[in-house]
Amino acid sequence: MIDRIKQIISHYNMSVNSFAQKIGANQVTINQQMNGDRKISLDTILKIINSFDLISTDWLLTGKGDMLRKESSSSNSSDDLLVTNRNLSETVKSLSRTIENLTNK
Q1: Which of 10, 24, 32, 44 could potentially form a cystine with 38 if both were Cys, beta carbons 3.0 to 4.6 Å apart?
Q2: In this predicted model, what pLDDT tens digit does every residue of 1-20 receive, in sequence order?
Q3: By residue range, what is the domain housing residue 25?
Q4: Are 27 and 20 in contact (CB under 8 A)?
């Protein structure tokens, strides 16, 4: 996912700092995530999705398809929302399991 986020930053000719500002995230946190020192958080993913309307959520989460959304009909939009919801739900479950495992150690 780091590579896909870097592609977004490059596509919009942004610095990591301006990217962090656009999505409303702490620059240090984003730098740590981009360097692999810290995992990409669900909060960061949601901020990216909410800040870049043209970026395909499915592409961001899975790497499948095109980076930029195509003009779509409302039925495709609802399909996209269902896929996004399912993907985010799976991500939340995975992160919850990770937190639980770390808490129990």
Answers
A1: 32
A2: 899 999 999 999 999 999 99
A3: 2-103
A4: yes
- The enclosing domain of 61 has a CATH number of 1.10.260
3-class DSSP state of 68 = strand
> What is the rounded distance in angstroms from the CA atom of residue 87 to the CA atom of residue 90?
5
Question: Left (φ > 0), alpha (ψ -120 to 50) or beta: where does 69 sit?
Answer: beta
Give the other-Cβ count within 10 Å of 96's Cβ. 11
28-55 confidence digits (pLDDT tens): 999 999 999 999 999 999 999 999 989 9
pTM for the model stands at 0.66
